[in-house]
Amino acid sequence: MLVFGGLPLFYMELALGQFHRCGCLTIWRRICPALKGIGYAICIIDTYMGMYYNTIIGWAVYYLFASFTSELPWTTCNNTWNTANCTPGVFDSVSENVTSATSSPAKEFFDRSVLESYRADGLDRMGPIKGSLALCVFAVFVLVYFSLWKGVRSTGKAVWFTALAPYVILFILLARGVTLPGAEDGIRYYLTPQWEKLKRSKVWIDAASQIFFSLGPGFGTLLALSSYNKFNNNCYRDAILTSSINCLTSFLAGFVIFSVLGYMAYVQKKHIKDVGVAGPGLVFIVYPEAIATMTGSVFWSILFFLMLITLGLDSTFGGLEAMITGLCDEYPRLLGRHREIFVGCLLLLVYICGLPTTTYGGIHLVNLLNFYGPGIAILFVVFVEAAGVFWVYGVDRFSKDIQAMLGYRPGIFWRVCWLAISPTFILAIFICSLISDEGLEEDDYKYPSWSISLGWVLTASSIIWIPVYFIYKLAITPGTFRERLSKATKPEEMPEEVAFRTISTYGTHV
């Protein structure tokens, strides 16, 4: 998925943003005006991301503050939130040996102290907003605002910390993890391929989702940030270097996680596959459980959750900046000239819309938004984006644009990927994701049928912009149907002073 899906599209978006110097909305005037709905779809997807992703960062902020104590609160069962079923030394896992009558201190801390999900009845009755969680999420939005309000100038300064600090912490955690008993078994399990799983379509769908969420094609982030590059910047080198570092970072993080999972399997005398859990439980239950058993657990907990927060902020910067840049480019006089006010209003709106995720039943809404918001929709958006650039705008024209910036045309591998392999591959994955849809499931909660219907409405609410705008563009274009189609898909000529504009004092396009 990296070689034939993620990397070619990563290179494509870097080159597009750098050449046309605009965000996810305005850029379609230069490529295919009828597909401008892609830009609006991206803005909707980024809004959903902001609604739930910042809440997850808020959970990490809650854990970080809870770690500043002499003893981690999820170490014992002597707390006000613990139940009679809480048993010290019992680890939460997928093992059948752990009965439902017992629960670990870490699981009860997450469920009953952080989320207090027992006070809600799922999505049917989510309960009131939990003030402490809402405050943590608000703190996240404040950090995001002061990192984005001045554009790339403020974002660039913030990213120096949020991008580099996790590497320092990762290596520290890795150095600690590999010294734990059982770490070798965990790493061996991590590195041992299970080839038979390649026959499952879900593995390929998960791989595609991981690559797109990790590298960012389709979210508008790459278009937005590369639009601030110098015209002759070597975006090809950036694409190779950045995507390689990105995937190597994920690979490194696997050693950090599985060394600790191996340690937990050693302590519990179980197989490693029976230790881990999927979803938020891995970083908010399983890893904290392991940290609580280590010497100097408070120090390791502070480091771990500080790393989660910085990684999360780094990701949310990109998604929100993509939406901000796209809208400021499209409406420069209304929004671009008042960026600070616009960013503040936008983030306040996203925060208010995301407040239901801070209720007692908010975790179920987080999972719903995560699964149906960007999950399936992003695959379709990426496919249409690739088809619009390579099949309508044309690989040859796109290659000439790159030659104008770099002085040479892309190699045969890139042109073949762009013309045939990448769009076809992504379309196949999207179709498989629809056919093999297993629905949204949790071990201890069954989602009501109305919520599944709502989820598909969320998915459609972003995708629908693509055909709706296409039809709208055809309707307002004069001429016969063939003339309308030709005009609506033909790139608009832009004045030279607009095509090669500079960056203003506030870091927005002018």
Feature tags:
510 residues; mainly alpha; Amino acid/polyamine transporter I; 20 helices
What can you see in these coordinates?
This protein is 67% helix and 0% strand. The protein is mainly α. The chain has one domain: Amino acid/polyamine transporter I, CATH 1.20.1740. The longest helix has 34 residues. The C terminus is likely disordered.
Number of strand segments: 0
Domains counted in the coordinates: how many?
A: 1
CATH C-level class is Mainly Alpha
Fraction of residues in helices?
A: 55-70%
User: Which blocks of ≥5 consecutive residues have pLDDT under 50?
Assistant: 93-99, 495-508
Shape: globular
Structural class: mainly alpha
Please describe the topology of this protein.
Layout: H1 2-20, H2 27-31, H3 37-67, H4 105-115, H5 131-148, H6 152-177, H7 183-191, H8 201-215, H9 221-226, H10 235-268, H11 281-292, H12 297-330, H13 339-354, H14 362-375, H15 377-406, H16 412-435, H17 449-463, H18 465-476, H19 481-488, H20 496-499
Helix pairs in contact: 1-8, 1-10, 1-15, 1-16, 3-5, 3-12, 3-13, 3-14, 3-15, 3-18, 4-11, 5-12, 5-13, 6-10, 6-12, 7-10, 8-16, 14-17, 15-16, 18-19
